[in-house]
Design a protein that fits this description.
The structure is a homodimer of 329-residue chains. By secondary structure, the first copy, chain A, is of the alpha/beta class. In chain A, 25% of the residues lie in helices and 26% in strands. Strand 14 of chain A pairs antiparallel with strand 14 (266-269) of chain B.
Chain lengths: 329, 329
């Protein structure tokens, strides 16, 4: 059986390029006894991967398949816990097919959402939004939340979960189409940052009394504007800073950081990995919320394993809407 | 009765100057019925006052006595709860004497420490250290703490309370005399930042496995080095950023702020005012710790109300050792 995989062959400098990656053919022999053979159906591309590609501390290996989350279907099983046709989530990476022990595969019993939702809105992207609001920022009813990259895979969930929690939501996105979507999903005030010469002024208009929580996906000018708008005892949950992942040198941090002293404010970074214990509660909630229409979502589907580099690069160019996924035929 | 007061007459630009202040004579008539007349004996000068002098949101008034904490002695009382000779702590500001309702005066029953200690080591300076470690950073036994301005009024308490809590302490101060004092009070590793060309390297030598908590009094390069050295789930408690209070424009923030995401780290500003409920517990502990020799402290005493501007300015030039106080004869 043939299985192609997409390898990282060069550490990106700045915005990743398609030739930082290489598609390699692998032959899978017979499935070894006791293992399970899986065909991936959807592969996730995520902003955090950019950091790992050039991380001094914890880098992805070169000339190996890029690690990452996938949804796949069992095609052969040497373990009685899984059967052909079963859907599994795993960290199998950018490959068409693979063999793994059942313990490395998370069985998804037949559920109400399409399989790819468990990589996005009901997957780790959505969990990031949920954990960031509920556990890190501890968003409360009646508070005002500001979300950047609000139409992205994480941001759109943050906006809608915050509304369910009873918060007022200000969302920022780039361009009229994304902003229209934010209005559709109930965001109270929408900022098109590409059309705004002054983000501080735009945020002051959108939240005249300031904000209690900022959910940061982008860093840079958004973070600085959010710190300026923070109310006393405000919280910033930093999920990511996509604006700087491709910078050759780290740009300066927010000059107004000192103002968090007088406001008794808090800035906290977090990783979804720390909050995996919330996953069962999160999935239950999300299935109910999507079922009732309280949460809506969008994916951007790219087709074929060849599309992985392009889908990944699109994360940084604003070309995506919602969660970008690669579908394996 | 004459009472002189030190007024702010011009908002400082950069480092405050003595002529930003003016000494004004006031006549106090007979003490009004029901009020209490107090002669101040010690007046506190604190870094946070610099911010309030030019704060857009919450500025000190011009041509009035600078607000601030004092220890005074009751000289006349129209309230049966206080008697001449009683020691009181209050926010009476930079004045020799004043009349106030008893409710604005905190009675200090005869205690084990000299009166001025209740403005410094056992006052709000010390409480800032205590609250920052115990409540904000939640420092735990066995963790490593880094403290900047470690020989200052707040820093020296932070170092010693952290040792009592069972933490390993790295302290930074400027010059051999201050560093010698840090060694005397049991700081495990001392950094003379004025003699160190590379603060990151010095901190890496002092804490090879990184730090769990940074208690920030200075901001700037110290904050950036501390963020670089933070371990996963590290905390930064920001008490102040004295390095930037006199800057005309806010300098850039730490470029490595983004690294708190991967470390799940937290940066939190705080004000002692939020944690005044800890004061009774704090004073009890501090009296016991000073009594047993577990905590030692130093003051820098300036004499006479005329010395207030000079004492205040000395906060920013590194000329002080421990808590600077002005004694009123």
């Amino acid at each position: 059986m043939q299985s192609r995989e997409m390898q990282l062959v060069r550490r990106p400098s700045g915005l990743p390029r398609e030739d930082d990656f290489r598609l390699v053919e692998r032959k899978l022999g017979p499935c070894p006894p006791g293992l399970v053979r899986v065909r991936n159906r959807f592969i996730s591309v995520d902003p955090y991967m950019r950091g790992r590609m050039t991380s001094p501390a914890n880098p992805f290996a070169l000339n190996e398949a890029v690690p990452g989350r996938t949804i796949g279907e069992v095609v052969e099983s040497g373990d009685r816990r899984l059967r052909p046709g079963d859907l599994v989530r795993s960290m199998s990476g950018w490959r068409e097919a693979f063999d793994a022990p059942a313990a490395a595969l998370e069985y998804l019993d037949p559920r109400s959402l399409p399989p790819q939702a468990y990589l996005g809105v009901a997957g780790v992207s959505g969990l990031s939004a949920y954990a960031g609001l509920v556990r890190v920022a501890q968003l409360k009813q009646g508070e005002t939340l500001f979300v950047s990259a609000a139409s992205g895979a994480v941001g759109m969930v943050a906006c809608q979960v915050a509304r369910i929690l009873g918060a007022r939501v200000v969302g920022s996105a780039g361009g009229p189409e994304k902003c229209a979507f934010l209005r559709e999903i109930g965001v109270d005030a929408v900022i098109d940052y590409k059309a705004e010469p002054d983000l501080d002024a735009a945020l002051a208009r959108a939240a005249p009394a300031g904000i209690d929580v900022y959910f940061d996906n982008v860093g840079g000018a958004h973070l600085e504007a959010a710190i300026a708008a923070l109310r006393p005892f405000g919280r910033v949950a930093i999920c990511g800073m996509i604006s700087i992942y491709n910078e050759a040198a780290l740009p300066p941090g927010p000059a107004n950081l000192v103002t968090i002293v007088g406001k008794s404010a808090r800035i906290e970074g977090f990783l979804a990995a720390t909050h995996m214990d919330l996953m069962p509660e999160f999935i239950r909630n999300m299935e109910a919320w999507i079922g009732s229409g309280a949460v809506r979502y969008r994916d951007t589907i790219h087709d074929g394993i060849e599309a992985l580099p392009r889908a990944f690069i699109s994360l940084f160019t604003g070309a995506n809407f919602g969660k970008p996924l690669v579908r394996i035929p």
